[in-house]
Write a structure and sequence with these properties.
Elements: H1 10-17, H2 24-44, H3 48-64, H4 71-78, H5 81-91, E1 128-136, E2 147-151, E3 172-176, E4 182-188, E5 193-194, H6 200-207, E6 213-214, E7 217-223, E8 230-236, E9 255-256, E10 272-274, E11 277-278, H7 296-303
Parallel strand pairs: 1-10, 1-11, 8-9
Antiparallel strand pairs: 1-4, 2-3, 2-7, 5-6, 7-8
Amino acid sequence: MVRKIDEMTITDAVIDQMSGTPDPRFKEIMTALVRHLHDFAREVDLTAEEWLGAIRFLTAVGQKCTPHRQEFVLLSDTLGLSSLVNALHDKRASDPATKSSLLGPFYRQDAPMKKLGESIISESQGPEVVFYGRVTNAAGEGVPNALVQVWEPDETGNYDLQKHDPSVMDLRGCFHADSEGRYYFRGICPTGYMIPMDGPVGDMIRAQKRHGYRPAHIHFIVSAPGYRELVTALYVAGDEHIDSDTVFGVSDTLVISVNEKDPHSPIPNLPTIHYDFKLAAAAKSAAMSGRVGVDPSQILQKAH
């Protein structure tokens, strides 16, 4: 007997057909996706023209992706989905820890290893500042030899991946903390910027009358054996977009200030930004990644 398919029965028909999915988590996700996607279409009474417009938009997002640009990550960021996934990840931690923030679409996994105190500046001309602090566990004890990865935009608000020659690396580096978990390095004072607006995500932002700006910030990934990897960022107080970040990455605990005269600076005569990172212990089972994003080149490699 042929099943009756209409606007109300189609959802159960699709879910029934997927019921034999062997992977239970994949089955759970796809069942929920179909149910919510169909409810969305019914709620807004989606037309064929609007459906085709969405297909064109998603196609354009994919076509904008390259080994140096990830438009889908940018889309996720601007819709708040990346921030939501970060918040869900933080809830799974067994210990209090520094809050996550966005990895963003400009991370590179091949940043150079540097010695403590060295500069991540190779091309930029922005004002130099010292970043320093400690990496600790939930008890406040230093985490020896923790790996601290950092990257930031230049004084014009552009990352090296956005330049004419993205093979040139600038304002990126990896540092190992010392035996007491202390880290310090030199970079430029963080800069705010407008997200890339020359693609379909930019078109969406303009259609929504949003400003498209991110407040001044610098990215960090902090990790050590036995601890959950921390993906976060620090945001400069006083930036005009600190309360309206286009990608919803700012949390009050991640807002910092520049100290022009810091008597505790590990490098004298330079302004400082001080922040201590707290890592949560890793679960006994294999730890799930908290990176909401990836090096753009890695996504294309896996796709092929």
